[in-house]
Amino acid sequence: MPTSIVDVAKLAKVSISTVSRVINRSDLVNQRTRARVESAIKQLNYQPNAFARGLMLRRSDIVGLVLPDLHGEFYSEIIRGANLKARHLGYNLVVSSARDGDDSHSLLRAIQQRALLDGVAVMVSELTDRIAEVLAAFPLPYVVLDGEIDGTPHDSIVIDQRHGAVALMRHLVGPAGAKRIIFVGGLATNVDTIARLEAYRQVLAESGLPQEASDVYHLDYEYETAYRLAREHVRAWASAGCCVFAANDEMAAGIVAAASEAGLNVPRDLAVAGFDDTRVARMTRPPLTTVRVPMAKMGAQAMELLCQRIADPQRPRMQISLQPELVVRESCGTALRRAADQPAPA
Amino acid sequence: MPTSIVDVAKLAKVSISTVSRVINRSDLVNQRTRARVESAIKQLNYQPNAFARGLMLRRSDIVGLVLPDLHGEFYSEIIRGANLKARHLGYNLVVSSARDGDDSHSLLRAIQQRALLDGVAVMVSELTDRIAEVLAAFPLPYVVLDGEIDGTPHDSIVIDQRHGAVALMRHLVGPAGAKRIIFVGGLATNVDTIARLEAYRQVLAESGLPQEASDVYHLDYEYETAYRLAREHVRAWASAGCCVFAANDEMAAGIVAAASEAGLNVPRDLAVAGFDDTRVARMTRPPLTTVRVPMAKMGAQAMELLCQRIADPQRPRMQISLQPELVVRESCGTALRRAADQPAPA
DNA sequence: TTGTAGGCGTTATCAC
DNA sequence: GTGATAACGCCTACAA
């Protein structure tokens, strides 16, 4: 039996309404009574019961961010951006992972906390019927990150994956001079991977480059997995004059490592491009040519949209599209270009 | 006005208590009425109001994890471990960062969500009076990660930093043959850095190695910062026969990169050790000799302890100490040892 | 097996 | 300025 407002009222010899007024900064409280109440609060270490408060106010000032996983630089940045923005808007952010042992009900379960929240931003990276279903019946304001759900209108904030991936691919077939490109993606059901793969195919087609089904791999976005894959193929890729487009920086880093260990020079023997421009991109030797995805901004914008909707549930649906940006470093043949720019050594 | 239990009761033509019974799986409900109620629930897409529910039940089945920051591999692993364990124990986990623009009240503020939670695990990495104060008056079950707070007894789970750091330092002065060691730590107020620095000094003393105040740097645990620092000092360090003990892997990676770029060979010209054994440790060339900190386990154990305490607030205080483990890779002279093991080439 | 009624701790609307 | 008192939505004796 923790202390309640009644205890404070008794101790301060006032009614609970007065205590409530003091707490909620309602100015119309006499200086002296206010002082009495405040001292009683301190003395009892009283904290208003948030359940009761939420029951009356119908809000908790807490918003949620549900991500497929909390692991890795990519999500960390989103969280950071969202957290900052949420605080600025007067909300506290809690984050939760949708992942679970079995993942069929995972999103469902993760979201079951919703009821204590004023709203949720959900990042959808695997499109399943279940998610559409859950969201369609979702009783709370929500925005969707990085994915479009059919069936119900909702605010959303997406990255223009296609655009970024096309820019990267054109860089590979153009300046970097690739003649055959290996695509190393995440799961085939992952929305980002799908978009990047489409761009890959589009540019291959428009450049008249070969499209072999066997040049496309679906991994899990992890460094280790890509490293292991690359260890087996890297020599063959190099001697076939390939170039690798990895769907995130971690996998690209794994591939670069495998190549180096096989005695290959990146980019001379094998060019490797990443995606996202997370910190790893600057940690490989050579640093990665990649596509910068504005992760923190995505998180921040999501909060912006969410809080707007909480404030005004009737506000028309909004969609924000963020533009990624090609970042040319050295893993795809800047060296080649530089050589071309300079007079050859005598 | 979202749908409440009354709406369901009306639609199903029963009383609210029956609805409540159905929801709470109280067996004593007739098959047919139960079916009626369930269909009404579905039809209305009814979700019990969590505030009202929490008010009665005095619990939310949600526990919190408050970390200094959510950024980086280290915290990600803790979260992952905690999340999994919490779910197994029937709780949902929400995580929150204590960081803020100004950080004086940040922990306070972050924790203000507490009231909706059944308990909190707090990671304390900067010891300030304020934290001790807040925690002393904390009205909820809590456990402390990786730090000991005076004043109030509490469950805690700590890493035996000292032990791990001593093991690493002995490796450096022993097999790796260091004669002078540079320490690159996090903030001087960070508890981990403090412990690691103590170990550094202890081993230096017991080995009769020089202790120069100028050999100790306090950075911020970030790759970039360490990289920049190293770029300026790395040649001097190398020619002085130094070896670097970085207080985390990210900084070690930054130093390795700076060394490589300066044309130095790691470990031959400069040995560099990290700490934590995060994924970066295997992503540098050469891979880092480091100390494995059981991060996921720390998160999991924290949840274990927390949930035990929630279940039994009277249970005696418990402290768990996790042992880190030296991981010898190649950044500190395995190569040297290997050379010594083999006959010199004719 | 089901319904009635009281209470959980707040805030809000009234009177005084 | 302050104090009763009615909600808020739910759970749970106790009664029927």
In brief:
With 346 residues, chain A is of the alpha/beta class. Chain A contains 13 helices and 12 strands.
Keywords:
Rossmann fold, 13 helices, alpha/beta, 346 residues, six-stranded parallel sheet, 434 Repressor (Amino-terminal Domain), 3 domains, disordered C terminus, elongated, DNA-binding, four-stranded parallel sheet, homodimer, 12 strands
Characterize the biggest β-sheet of chain A: 6 strands, parallel
Number of helices of chain A: 13
CATH level-4 homologous superfamily of the largest domain in chain A: Response regulator
**What would the principal axes of the Cα set say about the shape of chain A?**
elongated
- Per CATH, the class of the largest domain in chain A reads Alpha Beta
Give the averaged pLDDT of chain A, no decimals. 88
**Binned strand content of chain A:** 15-25%
Element-by-element helix/strand order of chain A:
HHHHEHEHEHEEHEHEHEHEEHEEH
The helix content of chain A, as a percent range, equals 40-55%
Question: How many extended strands of chain A?
Answer: 12
The CATH architecture of the largest domain in chain A is 3-Layer(aba) Sandwich
Q: Which blocks of ≥5 consecutive residues of chain A have pLDDT under 50?
A: 335-346
Counted up, domains of chain A total 3
End-to-end gap of chain A: 88 Å
| Largest interface summary | A-B, 51 and 53 residues
Query: What structural class do the secondary elements of chain A suggest?
Result: alpha/beta
> Order of strands across the widest beta sheet of chain A?
2-1-3-4-5-11
Rg of chain A, Cα atoms, Å: 26 Å
Describe this structure in words.
The structure is a homodimer of 346-residue chains. In chain A, helix 5 links the parallel strand 1 and strand 2. The C terminus of chain A is likely disordered. The first copy, chain A, has 13 helices and 12 strands. Chain A has 3 domains: 53 residues, 434 Repressor (Amino-terminal Domain) (Orthogonal Bundle), CATH 1.10.260.40; 128 residues, 3-Layer(aba) Sandwich (Rossmann fold), CATH 3.40.50.2300; 144 residues, Response regulator (Rossmann fold), CATH 3.40.50.2300. With 346 residues, the first copy, chain A, is of the alpha/beta class. Chains A and B meet through helix 4, helix 5, strand 2 and helix 11 of A and helix 4, helix 5, strand 2 and helix 11 of B. The first copy, chain A, binds a DNA duplex (16 and 16 nucleotides) through helix 2 and helix 4.
